[in-house]
Structure formats: structure tokens, C-alpha cells
Amino acid sequence: MANRGSRAACVCALLLAAGAPASPAQAQGVRDRTRPTTTRDETTVSESQGVELTLTVVETAPRALQTWVRTAGTLDEGRRTLVAYLAPTEAQLIELDQRVRVFPPESKSSMTQAKISRIVPEGPRTRVEAILPVAPSYDAVRYVMEIIVERGTFLGVSNEAIIEEGDRQVVYVQQGEGRYTPREIRTGLKGELYAEVLDGLEPGERVVTFGSFFIDAEHKLKQPSGALMDDAHLDH
Amino acid sequence: MNHVTRATLSAGLIAALCAASPGSTTEAQGVKISDPTSVLLIVNRDSNDLTFMDLESHRMVGKVFLGNNVNPHMAMFTHDGRYVVTGGTRANKAYIVDVPTLTLVKEIPVDFAPEHMSISPDSRYYYQGNPDGDSISVIDMQSLTEIRRLPGFAEPLNVTFLPDGSKAYVANYGAHWVGVIDVTRHELLKKIHVGDVPAVHRLDPDRYLGEIHGVSSASISNDGRYLYAADGDLGIVAVIDTREDRVIKRIPVGPDPWRAFMSHDGKYSVTLNNGDETVSVIDTASDAVVATFEGGPDMVGANFAAGKAFVISSTSGFVYAYDLGSLRPAGRIKVGTNIQIETATTDVAETKLYLGNSTDQTIEIIDARTHAIETVGNVGLFPWGTHIMDSKDNYCH
Amino acid sequence: MRKTDRLLKSIVVITLVLGGTRGLAAQAAAEPGGERQALLERISELERRLGDSRTAGAAEEPAAAEPAGAQAQGVTLQDLLERLEALEARLSTLETQTVMSEPETRVRRVVVWVDEDGVQHDEEVPGAREVVTYERERVYRRQTINEKIEEALAADADERVSVGIDAAFATQFTGKTSGDAGLPGGEAYGLASADLYFTARVAQYTLFFADIVGLSGSPPDAQIPSLSLINGYTARLGEQNQLNLREAWVRTELFSQSLALSAGRLDLTNYFDLNNVANDETSQFISDTLVNNPALGLSSNGAGVAAVFDPRVGINVKAGFQQSNPEAENLSQSIYSLVEVGYVGTPIPTGEGNYRVWFRTDNSSGTRATAVGVSLDQKLTPEATLFARFGSAEAEVDRDTFYSLGVGFANGLVWNRWDTWGVGYAHSDLDAGDREHVAEFYYSLGLSDRLRLSPHLQYFRVEPAGGGEFGYVVAGVRFQAGF
Lengths: 236, 397, 483
Fold this sequence. Notes:
The structure holds three protein chains of three kinds. Chain B is mostly beta strands. In chain B, 6% of the residues lie in helices and 49% in strands. Chain B has one domain (29-388): Methylamine Dehydrogenase, Chain H (7 Propeller). Chain B has helices at residues 3-20, 205-209; strands at 39-44, 49-54, 60-65, 72-77, 83-88, 93-98, 103-109, 117-119, 125-130, 135-140, 145-150, 156-161, 167-172, 177-182, 187-193, 215-220, 226-231, 236-241, 246-252, 257-262, 268-273, 278-283, 288-294, 299-305, 308-313, 318-323, 328-334, 341-346, 352-357, 362-367, 373-376, 383-388. Chain B has a four-stranded antiparallel sheet, with no helix packed on it. Chain B has a four-stranded antiparallel sheet with strand order 4-5-6-7, with no helix packed on it. Chain B is globular and about 60 Å long. The model of chain B is unreliable at 11-28 (pLDDT under 50). In chain C, a hairpin with a 6-residue loop joins strand 18 (451-463) and strand 19. A 16-stranded antiparallel barrel of chain C has the order 4-5-6-7-8-9-10-11-12-13-14-15-16-17-18-19. In chain C, strands 2-1-3 form a three-stranded antiparallel sheet, with no helix packed on it. At the A-C interface, helix 1 of A face helix 1 of C.
């Protein structure tokens, strides 16, 4: 009994180790191979439609993630230092010498550069100071501050590519020219432009960014109701 | 199996599985520029490269060679500091350089003779003007591809984005209109007619059928509400309301104005009139000329620092200074003899100008207060333009 | 170890080995062909682009290999290398035979160090002296044909003598409003003038200029005895239909071009008593008393020197002297000298203003006579500029005084963009008792860049000391063309 069990286990292990072969079609069995190559989870977009939509695909790759912490600051009497207060969740991201983009609300075209010069916890909030290279020429006291936090380099996907469906996050992966399938992914850090991919995408896979909404709408229109939950897993 | 053996084997299994999963954090390797605000970017037309100079030490810290006969024209940092973009005028390509590692990451074919460009406020799109191709290339900065090429322009020289990134305005040097682009759909929405050609053109049609000097740039006011577009042939600066996209006033200035440059406090717009070598100072509150001063030949740019306007006269080797407080001339800085100077950028502290001297292949650092000059040599062949991230004076000619 | 443990261990080992192998196998299956495919596509694209560029003028090239299509199978590394070599050969052919890819050359001023042995070094070495020399360098800059032509034309223009022409014809009709019946009235007059001027750059910051003028016609000043010239062109009229060398001088600029020195046959009024809206009889007022200050007392051009110091800080200083009498036998006779201080700024918030004060001496009458004057032009609005002049000159007994004022309009309140117009009034009060009042309105139409048409209307009233007051209305039109 033990020998039969161990042999079976070995065979199973071997099969598991062999894993899915290179072509998705082969894994689906003979019946699946006799079906048309456009699987029911794929959405096709013609070249002219793609141009019309300005459909853009971006390769999943390591990306430098930035978080922009936005707050309002008040200029001190010397008119060289901006003082702002941050909640703990944001304050923990702030470090000295981080770059800050500063502009008065009424003059958004005129942005001044500043650097974080001081971080002081004050009870439930944190006081943050940024020093300006030159006193602003406006009479404004309050300024918008955008603090740029470099989070590091992660496998990333464009925020624009992610479609939120309740608790799920879905992207559309290019399978070939004009063919896209939905795939559920799991993300971690959310940056200004990119989100960290924890699971669901391999480096090099090309996902739709601009135009993903249209692809998703097209996909949903073609699906029978109730099939959406299954479709997201078919390609994975 | 004892616990240790099971644990070891399980760990091995987990390790095997983890080996196949995507990498989590990739260590940055070969970082040459960790702070993009600490360097001066220099575009060298004839050595076909971009060089980087440290603003503190004035030492060259990096170089990116683009290829022979590329002849880059203008370069910019993206607002998020990730990339430098430039157009290779004789290669008909846009080049994307990764800032931390100073590596050329992408060459993107665009239209003929790309020159000046602009980046959308969110750093998402790079609009490259192609004057000889009469088009604008829209480059997506995530996919690093040209996603659209907008035709229908007439020698588009400069693009100006609204602060909210909803629209972009294209100045056409080969015509007398400013194009409005919907940045969401990347489409030309409308053409704003800047002004009528004088009726006397019927008496001298050759003059208007010859070389055309239209609108080189539409400069935006600090609040994003107005654009100031100088038209060379018409001798006016047209004030465009960006909410209604129409001209609300036409301000006569001198003949053949090149461009209107906005002072940093938004109070004045300084226009360079190459027709009679004068400089018109426009008060933006009243939209009227409040002073006209003598300038020099072939004026290509204006920078603002230390309360003054500095106007670059390319072929004379002089930089003319004007005190904007008292509205008086404030001297003339001789940069050199028999030289050609190009454009300059101003540091964010508004104390120094970094001027390209293409004849001597140097950068001339001009102290805005004392007018003293420090020269940094061997920056590259024929430095055509300079750029400092977040400077209020980043432009090209 | 029990059997179960051995089995589990086997499974793990097999998993590890096959997993790694599978990964490598997957990579091996995917990458070599994938890489080849990518290379193939790039080579095919290059071949296509080279094929397109053949139409730009390349000579014979090796025929392009047919694209291999989408399949990478069967294409070896050797095949790819051979195709790359063929591409390189085609590129070289193209580069050597296409003008636009030729490297640009230019000459640059360089500093080198030459040691005692005469060996040249690029860096400073002990015992070497610094030498400025010139050297050609080659750059990989591609230019279009248009740019090359423009450069060549600009270089050619720099070397040549520039010739300019300024021609004017003024027709005037007089109507006598008061005065003796013996005075002319209701007459028509005309005066034609042509200036031919030459400009050449002769050295660094040094310019040569010559102006030859010819005039012909009958100006009203020949018949009407006004104190000042009704037609300002008449001041140039020497002999009818004869060419006259008005000016011929050389100017050089020193001290970072802040000091300009001009020497030769000069017209000092070209440097002194300037005014932005009342200075040029060809395009502004035609009455001489509105474009010049009679107190200057300079009647003709002559040999002289003028120095202008302008550091571009809003203040300038000028000095000059010339011979004022063409009949003088030597340079110390008839010396006319002039000094002026000028200021430009915005003393009032309406706009910039130019303020000039001058002082002159003149010994052409045998005794030294002096005069002082002021000239100003001040922006009142972006369109309107106020001008004024004042002069007071020593006379035989007392002084001659003069003043003028008016307004000039440009950049607004005009019919065409480049039109200008003005109104002015001048008053002269001579020591001898004569008085003159002059008023003028002109409108200068900019018909084209080179042609202007200016109708004008003048009023003269002269009160001679001995009586016999008279007055004239003069209507006229002036054509002016410049190249």
C-alpha cells in the first residue's frame, strides 16, 4: 500500500513539477483545443479602434514609486519657511531634504522648489517645515505643498491600468495583437503613477493603461451574466 | 521525520516556489544622480550629448551620448524627476534618459526636426513639437511610446500646458494662430486667431508671402488665466483668456517681437523686439506697455533674477540688464568677444544665470546681483540650451 | 528515516530539480527564438529605412536582402551577422555620398601653450607661453540645405559693403493768410532728395559709413522769408542737381563697446539733441524747427569727432566738435563743439522718458558764442509721447530763445499698425526782435516696409522786427522710400 501510495505521490509530484507547459491551449485538454483560438475571456480590438481609443499598453517592469504627500503650509514671518502639519500615517513617510513643490493656490503656474528642513512630532500630529531658496514674490501666506517621497523600486503597474471591482483589482493583459484578457492582481504600495504588484503579473507582461475602461466595458458587454467571476481566473 | 528535517524541507519547498515569483524590491544600481534638482542639464548640439553639471561644485558629473548627427535641441526634466527628454532634431527622434542612472532608455521616432517640447503637469505626457513636420508628437511617459501624432499645425515651436493639465496651447511660428489641444483626448480643439494681417499687405504681398514670423510661444501668467502670445509679423502681443480661449487684448509692441517672457512675480511680461532692437515691458495688470528700452541684435531670451530682467543678445555677446523695480536700464554685461551666446536658465534661488556660450563651449555663470561671470569650460560641443529642474526660466530658442 | 519521510524528501528534491529545469527549459524555448525574432525584426526595419533613404540621393548600393518574414526558425546567427555587415556597407556608401551627413567644420579660436622648443601643448606646461591661435574642428552636425545657404549668405553679407538708398519727394502748396501783397501766395513747390549710403565693417567693432546726397527742386523756402525752413530737406540743398558728400566717417567702439568714437566728415546733430518723436524730417515733422533746435546753430556738416559714452545704465555722456564752415582754411577755424548729458528712465509712472541737456560753443563768427538747450521725450500713454525742446543762444546783444513742444502717436490711435502721426508747435524769439510761430500736423502712412506717405499741414506766422507780419498755411504730401 505504501509503495503504491508513494509511487502515486511521485507521479503526482512529477506532474506538478512539470507544471503547465508553455502554451495555455495545451493545458485545457483536447476538447478545449478544438475550440476557436479566441477564448471567451478575450476581448479583441481592431487597429483602427485602438488608434481611436489611443489604446496604450505598458510593460510590467520595475518602477521607481513615488508618493506625493499633499498638504497646506503657512509661510513664517521670515517668508522663507513653510510650516505644515501632517497626520501620523503621512508623517512617517517624511524625511529631511525631501523635495517639495510649493505654489500659492491662486498662482499654480508658478511653482517654487523647497526642501524639508525639520520634522517635529507634536503629540497626535507632526510639524513639518520646508525651506524655500528665496522668499516668494507673492503676498500669499498659505501655500500648497507637494512633498515627493521616493518609496523605492518595485515591480509596478500604472494606476491607470487597474480597474477596481469591489474588493478585486483587475488589469487587461495583452495576449497578442489586439487581444486582451482580464487578470486579477494583488497590489501593495500605491504611488502617484504606479502601484506595486505583489501577485498576478510577471515582468514583461504588457497591460492596457489608457483605454482599459473601454476594454473592460467591451469585455463585460460580451460576457453572459455571472461569468465575470470565472473569467478573471481563466488565464491565470 | 523530526521537526528540524520537516522544517528544512518545507523551507526548501517554499524557497523553490519563491524563486519563481516576481521580485519584490530591486536594488538601484549605478546611481549617478540621486537628486535631479542638484544638477544643471546642458544640451550640446554638436557633440550630440547631454551633460550634467553639479550646481554646487560646478563639476561635470555625467554625460549621455545620443548618437552621431542627432543634434539635440532642447531638453527637460520631467516634473517627477524620473526622466530627461530631448528631441534629436536631425535624427527625427525623441530620446528618453533615465535620470538616476543616466542611461538612454528609449529612442522614439517622431516627425521631422523635433525641437521644443513640454511636459504635462502630472508628467504623464510629453508633447514634442516637430516644426518641419508641422505636427506634435504625443508621447506617453509610461509606455514610452508615441501614442498620437497631431497634424495640422504650421511650424509648431512651443507648447504650453495649463496648470491643471486639461489643455495645451501650441504656438505656430508659421502662422498667426495658437492651437488649443484637449490633453485628455489629444485632439486639436480650436485655433485662436491672434490678429489680422494689416490691410496694407495688399500693397506689398511679397513681404507677407516671403518668410513668415508668426507666434513663437504663448507664455502663461502665474495664475494660469492668461497667455501672452507675441506675433512677429503683426508686431503685437495677444492676450488670450484660457477660460474662454479667445483674445481679449492686442498690445502693440515693437517690430518683429520674438517672444514674451513672464517675470517671476507675474507683474511684467518682457517682449524682445528684434525688428528695432528694443525691449517692451508690459504691465500685466493693465496689459499695457509701460516701458520700452534699447536692447541688442538677435535677442533670444530673457531671464529674471535679483529684481532684474536679463535679455540675451545672441550675436553681440551681451546680456542686457533692466531693473524692474525702477524700470530703468541696469547695465550691459559683456560675456565675450566674437562669440555667440544661446539661452540661459536661472537657479531656483534666483541668484545666478547659467548661460550657454556655444562658441567657446562653456557655461557662463552670471551673478545676477554683481554681474560677475564665472566660466565653466568643456561642457560639450556647441552648448545650445540649459535646464534646471523647477526653474522658472526654462526655455529654448 | 521512515518511508514517508523518504518519500516527502524525494518529492521536494524532484520538485526543486524539475522546477528549475522547467524554468530553464521555458527560457530556452522562449528566449533564443525570441531574441532572434526581435533581431530579425529590427534588421528588417533598418533595411526598409535604408531602402527609403535611397531616394534621397544615395548612389548604387548593394541590393537589400529580402525580409525573412515573421519566422525566426532556420535563421542562424551567421545569417544575422552577414545581414548586419551588408547594412553597414550600405550605410557607409550612403554617408560618403550624401551631402547632409558630411561632418560640419568650423574654425575656433583656441588657447595653446608653446614651449621653448616650439612644441605646442593643449594644457599648460612649465616653461611654455600662452598663445592664441585658430584651428578647424569637425562636428557631427547635420544641416539642411536651407541652413547651409543661409549661413553662406550671412557670411558673404558680413564681408561686403552694404548699400542703402533713401529717397523722398515732397510737394507743398502754400496759401498766404496775411502779409504784404508782394509776397508769393497760392504757389506749388516740390523738392526731391536721394541719399545713397554705404556701410562696411572694417575691423572688430569698427564701421565705415558714407552718405552721398543729391537734391533737386524748388522748395518754398526759396521764396518765403520765414525764419526757419518750411521744408527741412532744404537744409541739405547746396547746389541743385549735384551730388554732395554729406558724411564720411569711421566709428569704433571701445571699453566693452561702451564708448563709441566717430571721426570724419560728420553731422553732429545725428548724435546730439535727439528726440524719439521729433527728430527726422523724412518720417516725422517736415518743419525744420520741429526736428531741430535752432539754438544749436549748426548749418553744415564738416570734419569732426564725436564721442558717445553709454554704459547702458540710463545715463550717457556725449562730446564732439566739427568744423561748421566749409570755407574755413584750416581746422582751427570755425570750430563748433558740443557736450550733452542724457538720461533715460521712468521718472513718472506713465512710461519711459529721455532727457537731454546740451551746451555748445562756436567760433565761426570770429568770437566764441555759446548756447544751451534741452530736448525731452516722455511717454504719456503707450500710444502718446510728449516732446519738448528749449534753446537759448548768445546773440549780438542779448540772446535768441526758442522752444517747441508737441505730441507724437504710435502703436495705437492709428489707422494702420505702423502709422504714426503728430502735432507740434514751435516758437522762436530772436535777439533782433524777429518772432516766428510754427504749427504742424502730419500723418505718416506705412504703406509697406519701405514706403511711407505723409500728408502734412503747416502754419507759419512771422513777425519781423521791422514790421510786415505775414502768415502762410502750407499743405503738402511727402513720399519716402528706403532700402
